[in-house]
Amino acid sequence: MKKLVVIGGGGHGESVIDSIRSAKEFDIIGILDAGKSVGTIVSGIRVLGGDVLLPELFKQGIHYGVIAVGSMGNPQPRIQIYETLKGVGFVIPNIIDKSAVLSHDVQMGEGNFIGKGVILGAGVILGTGCILNTGSIIEHGTIIGDFTHVAPGSVLCGNVRVGEHVHIGPGSTVIQNVTIKSNSLIGAGSLVLRDISSNKLAYGSPAREVGIYEQSHDYSRSRGKS
């Protein structure tokens, strides 16, 4: 099996590790997480240190890395990890849980996580670095931009357009032909019947734009030491 390192050892990381194991394609050699002590065990996998170890691991022949940090409305940590991995030269595979159902013509970039019970319909196009969380349904012809998170139990009906860096809260429904533009956040349990503009916070049933949503671009993670 291909050797792989996981970046992120929190709750989302545990979900990603479980899905990696279900696919039986990769051998996880360790976790990088600067927020945890070296030697901590997460889902049976040892924390090796922070992501300062990436260049050395690459030299050792570990060429696959997975982004396993979650996205609670701010994708910047995931984007920074992606850029770090690419800068070193890592391949960032899509992690698709064995229980997910994908149409034969789904297209996607790299570094996506598709969780348990997710359904992707015909003609769906997915960008890079997205999270499609447990039980989400993405129907035919829907297009989702880079580093967008569709939270558990959400449904995107046919021909929905979702921009980059969007967070769609758990249990939300977006009806057919609606567009949600980039950098917006849809609150949990929302029913989206109309287009949502860029950089907006929207929620409710029906969902309404209630304010400006600004994502932090100054995120900095402490770098663990070996």
UniProtKB/TrEMBL annotation:
Keywords: Repeat, Transferase
The organism's place on the tree of life at top rank: Bacteria
Record-annotated membrane-spanning stretches: none
Positions contributing to substrate binding: 73
CDD domains per record: LbH_AT_putative
Keyword DNA damage recorded: no
SUPFAM superfamilies noted in UniProt: Trimeric LpxA-like enzymes (SSF51161)
Keyword presence, Transport: no
Gene3D superfamilies, per database record: 3.40.50.20, Hexapeptide repeat proteins
GO molecular function, one term: transferase activity
Pfam families assigned: Hexapep, PglD_N
Annotated residues for binding of acetyl-CoA: 149
Sequence ranges assigned to domain PglD N-terminal in this UniProt record: 3-85
PANTHER family: ACETYLTRANSFERASE (PTHR43300), UDP-N-ACETYLBACILLOSAMINE N-ACETYLTRANSFERASE (PTHR43300:SF7)
Name of the protein in question: Serine acetyltransferase
